[in-house]
Task: inverse folding
């Protein structure tokens, strides 16, 4: 089962986001992300958060529509997005697509970008989608396959330390069991040479960002 979570950041290219949603996806709205979900003509299965971005009328309307309401106190340890991800994890989802995770607040944006690096979420494939940009985190010992069109930009950015044993296939500038150093920019602005590429990593963490030169299509 895949969950699609609507966060409350900036919602770029709603049309592309709508096309990325499958009919059988579990839709979860994280607080104010509800409005983005409704704007696409969709009703979430779950509305979660402290609801500081919604008024009670909106929450009650969702309750009457049969939406599961999961309310948390304003003083909490997790952001609304992390609460939504953890809720999806508890429901047994194996994959999560997050929409509208980026925004004007740098603290929230950075925290959201790094959420997939949380070791407690390792059992879920988490992808952030923002217009033409897709972001995933590759953990040491794993392999990631990315899709797109030849010429799409691919950037590999190590976080939390050096990325060791990086092997890529299908990129313009290949890496063969090499190191990407933390704080350096060698992995930025590579490119796909085919419709698919793979990245393998022995140790460390890598943020993989794919920037598509065309709109999001049905390959998802």
Result:
């Amino acid at each position: 089962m895949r969950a699609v979570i609507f966060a409350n950041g900036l919602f770029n290219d709603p049309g592309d986001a709508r096309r990325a949603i499958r009919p059988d996806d579990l839709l979860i709205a994280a607080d104010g992300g509800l409005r983005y979900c409704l704007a696409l003509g969709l009703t979430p299965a779950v509305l979660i958060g402290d609801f500081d971005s919604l008024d009670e009328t909106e929450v009650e309307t969702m309750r009457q529509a049969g939406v599961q309401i999961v309310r948390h106190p304003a003083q909490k340890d997790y952001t609304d997005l992390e609460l939504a991800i953890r809720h999806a994890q508890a429901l047994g989802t194996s994959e999560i697509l997050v929409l509208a995770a980026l925004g004007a607040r740098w603290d929230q944006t950075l925290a959201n970008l790094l959420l997939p690096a949380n070791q407690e979420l390792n059992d879920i494939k988490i992808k952030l989608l923002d217009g033409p940009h897709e972001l995933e985190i590759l953990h040491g010992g794993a392999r990631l396959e990315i899709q797109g069109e030849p010429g799409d930009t691919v950037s590999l950015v190590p976080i939390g330390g050096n990325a060791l044993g990086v092997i890529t296939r299908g990129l313009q500038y290949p890496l063969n069991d090499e190191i990407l150093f933390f704080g350096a920019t060698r992995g930025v602005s590579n490119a796909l040479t085919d419709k698919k590429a793979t990245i393998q990593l022995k140790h460390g963490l890598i943020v993989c960002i794919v920037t598509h030169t065309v709109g999001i299509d049905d390959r998802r």
Summary: The first strand starts at residue 2 and ends at 6.
